[in-house]
Design a protein that fits this description.
By secondary structure, this protein is an alpha+beta fold. It contains 22 helices and 7 strands. It is 67% helix and 6% strand.
Amino acid sequence: MHMNYLPKSLMLLFLGFLLFGLVLPASAEQQADFESALQLLQEKNFDTKSEAITKIVASGHPNARAVLAAMLEGDLFTRKKEKDLVIAVKEGREQRITAVLTGENLGLVKKRSLKKVSVNNQLRGQLRSALALLNLDNPDPGERLTAVGEMLDSIDAESAALLRDALAKESDADVREAMELGIALGEVVSKDPAIRLRAIEVLDGHLHPSAFNRLTTLVEQEEDEDVRRAARAALNSIDLKRQFSSIAETLFFGLSLGSVLVLAAIGLAITFGVMGVINMAHGELIMLGAYTTYLLQVVMPEYPGIALLLSIPVAFLVSGGVGVLIERGVIRFLYGRPLETLLATFGISLILQQLVRVVISPQNVPVSNPSWMSGSIEINSVLSLTWNRLYIIVFSLMVFAALFMILKKTALGLQVRAVAQNRAMARAMGVRSERVDALTFGLGSGIAGIAGVALSQLTNVGPNLGQSYIIDSFMVVVFGGVGNLWGTLVAGMTLGVANKIMEPWAGAVLAKILVLVFIILFIQKRPRGLFPQKGRAAEG
């Protein structure tokens, strides 16, 4: 991992500290070790320079960080005449140089009077590790943990020995664990088989990529049979943990996709189940919810999180209102004529798409994630769970719970269930089925709008957004059982997980085809889905 440990501005500041004598003086022993290491840096041989870097770190000299940072940045030079090391920073057409040993400002010189201390990729890695090692005394545990992490990819036996010294005075548990891993990575290449075996015990089952790489190399090159056997067993343990992490990641992405399918289908389950209407404009109602989120973020560009939260009720009202208009203006005249209803709602979907293209944009529009939905939770080195998908899963369950309570605990819910089970009997009992139809269609459409808010945080928002989910929504409803909320939840989660399990070996398109084939075969066996609707109307 590349990091600029000391940018030019900070380098100049550090040099200023040197000039004014603010850096603590080195002891005589530190000074002697530091000077001998600097002499080695001027050698052409890269192995000699590598040895010099190790000695500079071990010297504990106050100027060690500045020298190594300058070397990594390409600012460490040798003066051709004086044969001493200087740090050079470009100033106009010349170079301002500072003596490494004394911190004395030596003024401006031409670059041709200097010779750069050359480094290769191996040395750059060692320099980054060395700079990280020098940061192990930082008072912030997070900084110390970062410093150890920077060392792990290129740690050697010498660095491991220095880490062991730092471990003795480390109190933070996370930093100690990282240090123990670093020590094991350094000792696994030791010449002593006993030390290598001890290091393998620490690396056994550890999921950091460096542990896997070091053990793989050891298995390929190790001559001692006991060490090779232990390394192979440790690799097998790591592989097993990786497989479990991969399964957990697949389930997480499957549940995430399933939650999206539940949100997209749950509104359709209500309208299709209660009214028997095949609403091909359902996807466009989802799209309107996504565009509502976009427009609120346009109005409140500095507060994307507040805009997102406000878009939930606003999208419900917008899509719900459009749904009521569709039901009152078109669908109410087509009850009992399913083919014409399908064609009419398909035409409405095209009108809504074109309206968005004309009024807003024919291209995809950007919807940003608020800070609290960005990033991820790192479970281990190979498994992390993204915050936006975690929020979508929780949000879908909250929407499901709210809708469930509405249908079970309110007067509207009672009427909706009565009409769904037996429309004629509900009318005979005084239920105004036309009003129930309008409110039901509005409720289902409003939930579609809320689904669009969630989808805006996961995918591109464009005029064709709804087309990607309309078929999937119908599959979920049919598979779960028309009009059954629990069936929609179980079916959505099941199909989401099934898709993600099959995608790695079948591909996204073939996985969807296989799911569709499964549903077709399933409804041949159980035409009413997983959870059949109850009531005389369902039986008829």
